[in-house]
Design brief:
This protein is mostly helical. It has helices spanning 3-22, 28-34, 53-60, 70-77, 103-106, 117-120, 138-154, 159-177, 184-201, 206-221. Helix 8 packs antiparallel against helix 9 (184-201) and helix 9 packs across helix 10.
Length: 228
Amino acid sequence: MNKKHCLAAIVGSLAGVLGTAGAANALPKYAQTEGKTCVYCHTGATNSNTINYRGKFYKQNKYTFAGFDDAAEAKKAGVEVGPDAAPLPKSYSAPKADDTKPAEETAKPAEETVKPAGEAAAKPPMAQPKPPKGTLPVAQATLKFKAAEKAHLAAPRNAARKKAFAAAVAQLGRATMYAPDLRPMEKYPQALRLYRQALSLDPKNSVALADKKMIEGVYKSMGRPVPK
């Protein structure tokens, strides 16, 4: 995966998490009432000019998701199902069967039946970024980190050991950044702290320099403060 695609994937994985904070900026009572983030009903900034098909349904339905069919409404609007589909909004209730339609229309084959929103949400809106070649699992990177740290502390003035420790810190940062079992709100700030530590030991470490710049760029592009 090239840098551009990796950046886009990280933006996607951060969007839902960062949207939680953004939901409080415009209409906090709706975000809090429904337990959803801003990206559920908005395409970008949280204002009335950017509401998507969900936001339009919510507004037209007297601010409730009763009878809402995510997939059907997306199809009606001519767009893909939006992000953050699960969990369902608190006011959600399944749409009722249309008794006015002929039986042959309502009794569609199983393969043609629209899937509930919860099933659509099982597939993430964007794939997780693919780690660069040579990226270690967190457990293995942690062992290398501890060994390098021990060697560095035993001889803190040894330039080679200091550089090796910086490399181990940066590799742990990368392992954390691409860890599939960590949530974005956990792994990206944690990886940033490790990259900063690596650069304090070796300001020229290429892994720390590149990944730190990438993560900071994602936060800035979304208008969010970079984690300390």
